[in-house]
């Protein structure tokens, strides 16, 4: 069997796995289909995600359920002002050999050594500790005591942030924000979903969640994403959209007036990669322009910085991105 036929078989298998994924996740998570869809896209594209929402919207539950349905190891780090980098990555401690009494340094792994790491309220810890995640997110390894320790694949950081109560928080620096593929806004559920949530969480039983994918299958699909063919037209579209967000070179007046800083090349890479993953999950062998348009808000939301003019006019970043999409029709 040639590679092309193998890839088509994998595509069919992935479509079935996606159906099973949502079937299992819906046992615990009510609604939030788009959020789950985007998180699955990020995982197949080897990207990290930042979830932003007010308390009580099940951000932690979504991530925990995701790890169960994907059969991945899960660790949670509660970020606080006194958290140290070694509390995340691990530390070297003196270890005593019980047989001969010899002492030696031994590295004890921190909670970052898991397939899915929940960085809960990541903006509540100082930049020095936030930066401890940088190497792990980018290089998939941790350095301690001059030694490097590889993280087990697949590896994802899913961070949460509370948009209210900003007192005593440390906004994530741009370099850290840029490591996240998606910035996902968790909205309030609609009335029907909220009724269902209250019924489910105030009764006795708890649904058992079965795994829909294995670690090896996820890695196989991640490799498949990289092999998906993409037209020059789609790559050009993604690059032009991202370039148009930069006030210094944009020919769009509303960008020049409302934006102080635009997105970098990593945004273009993520748009194309995520579009490939979305196409596969939708059962299509190659992505389309509509996939890029769908992915513009979560990928550019935290990479384009509105200026004082935008704030004075009450323009939100999503309003600016909506105008951007309209300025680049298919």
Give an overview of the whole structure.
By secondary structure, this protein is an alpha/beta fold. It has 15 helices and eleven strands. The chain has helices at 3-25, 33-44, 59-69, 85-89, 127-130, 132-139, 174-177, 191-201, 215-227, 232-243, 253-258, 265-281, 289-300, 308-312, 317-327, and strands spanning 48-52, 74-78, 90-96, 103-109, 116-120, 141-144, 147-150, 156-161, 180-185, 259-261, 305-306. The strands form four sheets. The protein has a five-stranded parallel sheet with strand order 2-5-8-1-9. A two-stranded antiparallel ribbon has the order 3-4. Strand 6 and strand 7 form a beta hairpin. 34% of the residues are buried.
Walk me through the topology.
Blueprint (H helix, E strand, L loop, with lengths): L2 H23 L7 H12 L3 E5 L6 H11 L4 E5 L6 H5 E7 L6 E7 L6 E5 L6 H4 L1 H8 L1 E4 L2 E4 L5 E6 L12 H4 L2 E6 L5 H11 L13 H13 L4 H12 L9 H6 E3 L3 H17 L7 H12 L4 E2 L1 H5 L4 H11 L3
Parallel strand pairs: 1-8, 1-9, 2-5, 5-8
Antiparallel strand pairs: 3-4, 6-7, 10-11
Helix pairs in contact: 2-12, 10-12, 12-13, 13-15
